[in-house]
Specification:
- By secondary structure, the chain is an alpha/beta fold.
- The protein contains nine helices and nine strands.
- Helix 3 packs across helix 4, helix 4 crosses helix 5 and helix 8 packs antiparallel against helix 9.
């Protein structure tokens, strides 16, 4: 199977495994990735997901060999994206564990995630620039929101690759870890995030995303609305734990 789900308590790891194509994503793999994220969303016991590319490569993008053979990825706007889940905003956090290359559509898969943990030798970039393949899985939308307009245009226009240290400096990745440790460190980060009261964490996360498309006043009102929901569900217990120093 090109995609498998591995669960460890509250952490779900979605593993992309197509070593013969450097984890490039064809139509069937895109469908499997989307279904894996939907399964994570529906699993009440799963609090945080990790997206990991096996065999030393995160993802080399869309499978251009399959496209050249007439077996292209899905190109309709309604429904799943060409790379699978990249039109989704999951209600729970997803962390990318990046080893090797995360390029073209693979970069867009990484941008779909909330956080990115990259190994020291990782390379990220818009390599599809070289082949006339556009960013249609959220790359032009998410990249400038994450790294800023100037840095996003640098990557989008030049198609150059950036190493993990430069990616960290521009905010493209959030952690740099030793080679071979991306999955381990991403899963440890996932367990840490999952240790927090879930309603508060998820509502703060969702408010952050929603604020990007709202005016300041609307965003403040939305934050307050989501915050009150968290207060009603979790704050009393949290205050009690604080007074007992049980944290």
């Amino acid at each position: 199977m090109s995609v498998r789900i591995e669960k460890d308590g509250v952490v779900t790891t979605v593993v992309l495994s197509r070593p013969e194509r450097r984890n490039a994503v064809d139509r069937e793999t895109a469908e499997a990735l989307a279904e894996a994220i939907r399964a994570f969303e529906a699993d009440e016991e799963a609090h945080v997901a990790v997206l990991y590319g096996d065999h030393g490569t995160f993802c080399a993008g869309a499978d251009l060999k399959a496209i050249a053979e007439g077996r292209g990825n899905r190109l309709e706007f309604d429904g799943d994206a060409p790379m699978g889940p990249t039109r989704m905003v999951p209600k729970k956090p997803v962390i990318a564990a990046i080893a090797g290359h995360a390029v073209a559509g693979g970069l867009e898969l990484a941008l779909f995630c909330d956080l990115r943990v990259a190994e020291e030798s990782a390379i990220l970039g818009v390599y599809c620039r070289r082949f006339g393949v556009p960013l249609i899985d959220g790359g032009t939308v998410r990249l400038p929101r994450i790294v800023g307009l100037g840095r996003a245009l640098d990557l989008i226009l030049t198609g150059r690759g950036v190493d993990a240290r430069e990616a960290l400096a521009m905010g493209l990745v959030d952690r740099v870890v030793p080679n071979g440790k991306a999955r381990e460190e991403a899963e440890a980060l996932a367990r840490h995030i999952a240790s927090f009261p879930p309603t508060c964490m998820r509502n703060d996360r969702l408010s952050t995303y929603e604020s990007l498309d709202l005016s300041f006043e609307e965003a403040m009102r939305n934050e307050f609305r989501r915050g009150r929901e968290a207060l009603a569900r979790e704050a009393l217990d949290g205050a009690a734990r604080f007074t007992r120093k049980a944290f």
